[in-house]
Design goal:
This protein is mainly alpha-helical. It contains 9 helices and no strands. The chain is globular and about 65 Å long.
């Protein structure tokens, strides 16, 4: 027995101090798109439901199309998630028992409940729309069910939007484990991307009058995203300097000039420019997630 080993005490720091204990998985682009579509569908669903709650016939008319688009995005995300885990049975195992202390379990259950309720709401609407000939009573009950599942999907989206994912766990991957403002950034950015996608969808469907109602939320969410990103960047800039060296300028230009000031300025000039602003927001969201995932690379 080696008696020269010093015990762990306040005067004897752990030999693991200052070392990264986790190893970055063999991720490629899939984790970036998984995070992007996960945040996009949740942020879009939350924004869509809040707009619907606030009323207005335009938002009500757009609701079925928005729910359908959110469902398509979450199905893409579920497929990417299974491939991201690398082992499909792991996803199934995470659904067997809900562990509130397990981020993976809570995230998977939240995403599954959200997608199930959203799918039910979309199915009810389009079935009634395509085959609805059961009279006014059937339409009333179907409308109530659709709204019920929409509210349940909204609650599930709130869980999903607050779940950073295994890749961004502050206690796991080097580079982001000290980013205490990461959740705030992810939530504000997801809502901003949801607003941007809503603007693009409304313009594509010809609902140009929505532009006036989207202007103030777009500006507020742009400010919130920029502030949250700045706070998160201050916590990760030392790591970013080691990983990216002199590429910080490109990041700041993309987040603050193109996806910030540029998107905000365009939003004032009508529905078409608002849609372009939404596209810039979405492109910035992809760029940000590539940057975040890059922080976890081994130096």
């Amino acid at each position: 027995m080696n008696t020269n080993l010093k015990p762990w005490a306040s005067n004897y720091p752990s030999p693991y101090e200052g070392h990264d204990l986790t190893h970055r998985p063999d991720w490629a682009n899939i984790i970036v798109w998984d995070a992007f579509f996960n945040n996009l569908t949740a942020g879009f669903m939350v924004f869509t439901t809040v707009a619907w709650f606030l009323g207005g016939h335009v938002f009500s008319n757009l609701l079925p199309f928005a729910l359908t688009l959110a469902l398509i995005i979450v199905l893409i995300d579920l497929a990417l998630l299974v491939f991201d885990l690398g082992d499909p049975p792991r996803f199934i195992h995470a659904m067997r028992v809900l562990h509130f202390k397990s981020p993976l379990s809570v995230g998977v259950w939240g995403l599954a409940c959200y997608s199930s309720c959203l799918g039910a709401a979309v199915a009810i609407y389009w079935l009634i729309y395509l085959f609805g000939s059961g009279g006014p009573v059937i339409h009333i009950y179907a409308g109530v069910l659709m709204r019920l599942f929409t509210v349940l999907a909204f609650i599930g989206a709130l869980v999903v939007i607050c779940y950073k994912g295994v890749a961004f766990s502050c206690t796991s991957q080097p580079g982001v484990k000290d980013a205490r403002w990461l959740t705030s950034f992810m939530v504000s950015d997801a809502l901003l991307m949801g607003c941007g996608l809503y603007a693009v969808m409304a313009f594509a469907l010809g609902s140009w009058t929505v532009w006036a109602q989207l202007l103030v939320p777009m500006l507020i969410l742009l400010c919130a995203r920029c502030v949250a990103f700045a706070l998160m960047y201050l916590e990760t800039r030392e790591r970013a300097k080691l990983v990216y060296h002199s590429e910080t300028g490109l990041l700041l230009v993309m987040v603050y000039l193109i996806g910030g000031l540029g998107a905000a300025a365009l939003a004032f000039f009508g529905p078409s420019c608002m849609a372009i602003s939404g596209v810039l927001v979405l492109l910035t969201g992809i760029f940000e997630r590539y940057w975040l995932i890059g922080l976890t690379k081994k130096i």
